[in-house]
């Protein structure tokens, strides 16, 4: 079989992701293995760890990747963990120190997608490295190399070396915990038919709580709902379940268990920014519990450009230093790793990044663990006392990437004339701060879309920012003439208002 075409659209800012099997298939995985060895020489890597989530094609892709890698890396230096929770891989890596970890997943994407998250020296590879991989895959595919003519029938099946759950669970439960009297919680978990179901119940029960499960059997067809807890519709089943069964809290996970959604005891969705506030309070308490805690030593917490204004205030109120980052798991993990004294970081998307034993843990099961540590001490009613503003749910509209720079210049100019802005932040798109809220516009890193986030202290301020957004986009569309922009998602309907 000859590989002739590489779909370049699958190479994203943070990872590789595309349609399975039309774009991402065993041929692609096989060639990826060779390209990785060109970009990341084996002598610099040492050992390799491969695993996959529940999606269709995971074992097939892992098998092809393994057979390519073992042409350059001794097979005894390649561990294949099979179907696994990535948080467990990260904790396992604390002791093993793999030079390269490849996790086969399309994260929160719907059925019909698969892909690869690649970590070198415990951190995700950056966008420049992904571009180099794409270049080398195309170069190899364009050449008529003998190794590109292969038969899957002769592929060696990699032996599965499972990692015990206890390694992960014991590492978490051994962390300091000085709470004397605890609430015994009744917890509902929605695994989204992803890999969280492999470990979440066992961990939370060993904390001493009662756990009820929803959709916790891994199933790559995701028969119950799309595995993305950041979308409110995907939490409907959990919300009803929490109320019907009298649960104190509900936790929801995406396909590869790195994104967390939270529902309170009343079945109300707790927005990611409010979850982040809980985690700031919990992690500062946790940090101060260490015997070598030094109050004179600065603590740093990272947050992304989409985050609520309450996040910076909460970080400062907790006695830590806030650091703003570009959106995206690669950007966030790199930022948390680079800042000496960084405790953890969080994103609007529901991803949280914890510095643990020198590594960065992007694990929603661990995020849930820390939330439960906080709630078991203060009680489930604590959610009612969190601050919140009004926020339009994140809007994503089709928009050509090559036009975004011109649009943002136009938006900035118009804002200076019409919004009385306090400040502009341009590290990732354009964020405009006004007295009553903020507006963010930025290009998506994974699609030809414009992402818009709006937060305000009142409905009046929210309508002002929303009306400005519609007007400035319509004005820019008129200037472009032949470029149609779909604005239907920006209609200022009442249903979009309310606490998130």
Short description:
The chain has 500 residues and is α/β, with parallel strands linked by helices.
Description:
Residues 10-139, 167-267, 298-380 form the Alpha-D-phosphohexomutase alpha/beta/alpha domain. Residues 417-467 form the Alpha-D-phosphohexomutase C-terminal domain. Belongs to the phosphohexose mutase family. This is Putative phosphomannomutase. The protein is an alpha/beta fold and 500 residues long. Helices cover 35% and strands 21% of the residues. The protein has 14 helices and 21 strands. The strands form 4 sheets. Strands 1, 2, 3, 4, 5 and 6 form a 6-stranded mixed β-sheet that branches. Strands 8-7-9-10-11 form a 5-stranded mixed β-sheet, sandwiched between helices. Strands 13-12-14-15-16 form a 5-stranded mixed β-sheet, sandwiched between helices. The protein is globular, with a radius of gyration of 23 Å.
Q: How would you sum up the global shape?
A: globular
CATH fold title of the largest domain: Alpha-D-Glucose-1,6-Bisphosphate, Chain A, domain 3
CATH homology-level superfamily of the largest domain: Alpha-D-Glucose-1,6-Bisphosphate, subunit A, domain 3
How many runs of DSSP E, i.e. beta strands? 21
Please outline the major beta sheet: 6 strands, mixed
- Report how far the terminal alpha carbons are from each other: 51 Å
List the helices and strands and how they pair.
Elements: E1 16-19, H1 26-39, H2 42-45, E2 48-52, H3 58-69, E3 78-83, H4 86-96, E4 100-104, E5 113-120, E6 123-124, H5 127-142, H6 165-173, E7 186-190, H7 200-206, E8 210-214, H8 236-244, E9 249-253, E10 260-264, E11 269-270, H9 272-288, E12 300-304, H10 309-317, E13 321-325, H11 329-338, E14 342-346, E15 352-356, E16 359-361, H12 364-378, E17 390-398, H13 401-418, E18 423-425, E19 430-434, E20 437-443, E21 449-456, H14 459-480
Helix pairs in contact: 1-3, 1-5, 4-6, 9-10, 9-12, 13-14
